Amino acid sequence: MSGGVAIIGAGLAGAIAACRLASRGILAAVYTARPGATFLHGGGFYLGSNPSEWSSALTFAQTCLPALDIVLQKVDGIDVEGTRRRPDAAPATHAAMNLLGNRPAVANLVPAGHPFANMQRFGTAVDVDFPARESAFGRSFASLAPLFDAEETAYLQLRCALSRALEGGAFTGLLLPPILGLRRTEELRARLSLELGLPVAEAFGTTPSTPGLRLAAALVDALETAKLPVHRSKVTAVQLDPLGLWIGDDLLPARAIIVACGGPLITGHEQTGPAEVALGLLPIEPRLSPDPLRSSGVLGPYGGALFASGVRIDAQSRVLGHDHQPLHSGLFAAGDVTTDGTDPVLSRDATGRALRTAYAAAEAIAREHG
Predict the structure, then answer these.
(1) How many CB atoms neighbour CB 46 within 10 A?
(2) Fewest CB atoms within 10 A around its CB: which of 168, 209, 262, 309?
(3) CA 119, 150, 236: angle at the middle one, nearest 5?
(4) Which parts of 102-171 are beta strand (E)?
(5) Is 257 helix (H, G, I), strand (E, B) or coil?
(6) Separation CA 115–CA 226 (nearest Å)
(7) What is the pLDDT of residues 251-286, one digit of tens each?
(8) How far apart are CA 106 and CA 91, in angstroms?
């Protein structure tokens, strides 16, 4: 496996894209933040609070998921501060596992070294034994994680992730952005500097040191504005691979980015539309990859992005197309577009278009990179 597809949003469009990619042998890592509007959740299958989603979710779970192997990098279950478990998470996951006969069709494979890997406990779903997921340190740490407060837990796992990322590298210092859920950033940087033996500086100040970090910062800020928790430490650990995929203890570059979340993605970021961020971010050379992925048209080595099901897209971003056709190689727009900063109310037809586009985009990515 040389890389996967990062999917931001786990609604129907994101799930269908993930399932189709998985069925074609391409890893799909799903990032999601709103359990009330999604149905991929934790280590199982989340049935959203919106009653209209139930029939689709049930049908989808019964017919598609049992036959697929989907990797879910979980950020669901934590609030924007990254510190509290949502009270509705465990029942939903248990119901999902019952629905699937306790078969982990969707597994939480966030590695032990990931900053938020063990902060949430979702019963049997997270406790599924996947040997490739955790190192020996990770397994022992997982049993101790509940004893730490959330902030300390996140810090220890961040240090583990950074230590591993720094192994064997000729690093002279570390650029550390503000980390979601960790408020004592100055104290954190000083502590990391001492424990890692490297100077640690603020990454995203008024003058980011490289265009790559500036673009990564814009993407992270846009996602956080939409209240989608983002592991900022990943940008630090891999710098120019901000949307790489953590699998086991390995980081893989993303072949493509699929943005499939409804509602405003860039509210408050008038000068940087999501397409500009993606188009600027994707051509960055994945320096940690010994064999950079083949370029895909104008989008560079990562291959492309899919904007689906109601993502707000800047009209000047050269992405918006009401005909729902790809405007660049691997780059898609789908669904209705919100312009007032609120979640769009998708009609049945618009939802159908978004789902069909997600499926078609996954097919296109699979054909090019499968």
Answers:
(1) 27
(2) 168
(3) 80
(4) 106-108
(5) strand
(6) 21
(7) 444 455 555 543 323 222 222 233 322 322 222 222
(8) 16
pLDDT tens figures, 283-297: 222 222 222 222 222
316-352 core/surface letters (b: 16 or more CB in 10 A; e: else): ebbbbeeebebebebbbbbbbbbeeeeebebeeebbe
pLDDT value at position 195? 75
- The residue assigned the tokens 């597809």 is 5
Dihedral (CA of 210, 213, 219, 224) sign: negative
At 62, is the secondary structure helix, strand, or coil?
Answer: helix
Q: Are the C-beta atoms of 142 and 116 separated by less than 8 Å?
A: no
- Residues of the chain predicted below pLDDT 50: 1-3, 10, 12, 30-151, 153-154, 157, 161, 165, 168-172, 175-183, 202-254, 261-354
Find where tokens 């650990």 sit. Answer: 237
Nearest residue to 113 (alpha-carbon basis) of 246, 239, 254: 246
| Amino acid residing at 234 | K
- Determine the residue type at 244: G
Question: Would the CA dihedral through 231, 50, 52, 339 be positive or negative?
Answer: negative
CA dist list (Å): 364 to 21, 106, 298, 305, 326: 10, 23, 16, 11, 10
Q: Residue 134, CB half-sphere, CA atoms under 13 Å: how many?
A: 18
Specify the pTM: 0.34
